[in-house]
Amino acid sequence: MIDDPGADRSAAANVDDVNTAIDVRDLRCSYGTFEAVRGVDFHVRTGELFALLGTNGAGKTTTLETLEGLRKPSAGTVRVLGMDPYEDRKQLHRRAGIMLQESGFAGDLTVAETVRLWQRLSSRPSDADSAMERLGLAHRRDVRVKQLSGGERRRLDLLLAVLTKPELLFLDEPTTGLDPESREAAWQVVRDLLADGVTMLLTTHYLHEAESLAHRLAIMHEGELAVSGSLVDVLSSERAHISFDFPSGVALGSLPSFAGEVDVEQLHAGQFRLRTPDLERDLTAVVQWRSAHEVSLRRFRAHHASLDEIFHRVVDRDGDAERR
Ligand SMILES: Nc1ncnc2c1ncn2[C@@H]1O[C@H](COP(=O)(O)OP(=O)(O)OP(=O)(O)O)[C@@H](O)[C@H]1O
C-alpha cells in the first residue's frame, strides 16, 4: 500500500532517532502572505536515498533550503542529524554536503584551484583526483570556471558537494543540463556514496533518475505531499499493464473473467490491454489461457506502472478538480 501522507505524520511520532537522518513534521514555509509549503511530513532513514519530486513551484527547493538551515520554517518541526538545521547550521554544515541549484563559484579560478580552496575549507577532504576522474573533469582541471559549459559546472558542483565526505548529502536537481553520459557518471558517483552509507535527499525532474536511485520518494504538488512511500509501494499504487495482439481465430469471450478492478481495452490495430491491480495473478491467468488455446501472443508486454504515470495522475487529479 502506498503511504498516506497523513499516515506518515502519525508514523513520524514513532520515528527512531538512530535510524532517522531527517524528520519533518507539519512543515510550513511562507514568502510574505504566500504559503509555499503547506504542512509537509516525511522522514529520511539513515543510509537511504529519498527523492522529492514535484511540479514546478511545488515547494521542493523551499523544503530543501529549510532542511539545509538556509531558511527558518514558518511552522512545524524539522530535525536533521538530530539538530535544528536553522539554529545549528554551522554544526550541520560540518556533516552535510549541499549541492544547490545554482552555484556561486569564482569564475576566474581554475577547476583545480577551486577544488584546492574547497579542500582547505574542509576538515575531512577526500581524494579530489579520483572524483575529478569519475566526473569527467580531470582534463578540465586547468580551465577557468567561467569557461566551463553548464554541464561541466554542474559536475563541479557535485564534486565539491562530495569532497567533504559528508554523512548526509542534499542534491537539488544535480543532473539538470547533463548529457546522458555525464548523467550516468553522476549516478555512479551517487551509487558509490550510497554504498558508503551516505544518506541523500534528492530533488529532480527526471523521474527515471528517481526510479533508478531512490529507496523512497514523495511527490509534491502545490506545497503538499500528494504521495509518499517506498518506490515499490508507490509504483504498485497504480494499476499494472498487460498488453498483446489479440490472436486471430480465438473468441474474445474465451478470455478468463478477471476478478476485481480490471479494465479490459481493445486498442488500435488488434492490440489488447488489461490494466490490473494484481499483475502476478492476471499474468498467470493470461499465460494459462494462451497455453490452453495454443496461440502465441505477439507484442506481449507486462509491466508495473511507471513513475511517470503516477506523477501525471497526481497532477491531472488536481487539474480535474479545478475544472469541476
Ligand atoms: N523568494 C521568493 N519569494 C516569493 N515567492 C517565492 C520565492 N521563492 C520561491 N517562491 C515561490 O514559492 C513556490 C515554491 O517555490 P520552490 O522554488 O520551492 O519550488 P520548486 O518545487 O523547487 O520548483 P522548481 O521545480 O520550479 O524548481 C513557488 O510558487 C515560487 O514562486
UniProtKB/TrEMBL annotation:
Compartmental location: Cell membrane
InterPro entries the record matches: AAA+_ATPase (IPR003593), ABC_transporter-like_ATP-bd (IPR003439), ABC_transporter-like_CS (IPR017871), ABC_transporter_ATP-binding (IPR050763), P-loop_NTPase (IPR027417)
SMART domains: AAA
GO biological process, one term: response to antibiotic
Domain ABC transporter, chain residue ranges per copy: 22-247
Pfam families: ABC_tran
This protein's UniProt keywords: Antibiotic resistance, ATP-binding, Nucleotide-binding, Transport
One GO cellular component term: plasma membrane
Listed CDD domains: ABC_DR_subfamily_A
Predominant place of localization: membrane
A single GO molecular function term of this UniProt record: ATP hydrolysis activity
Membrane topology: Peripheral membrane protein
PANTHER family in alphabetical order: ABC TRANSPORTER ATP-BINDING PROTEIN (PTHR42711)
Name of the protein described by the UniProt record: ABC-2 type transport system ATP-binding protein
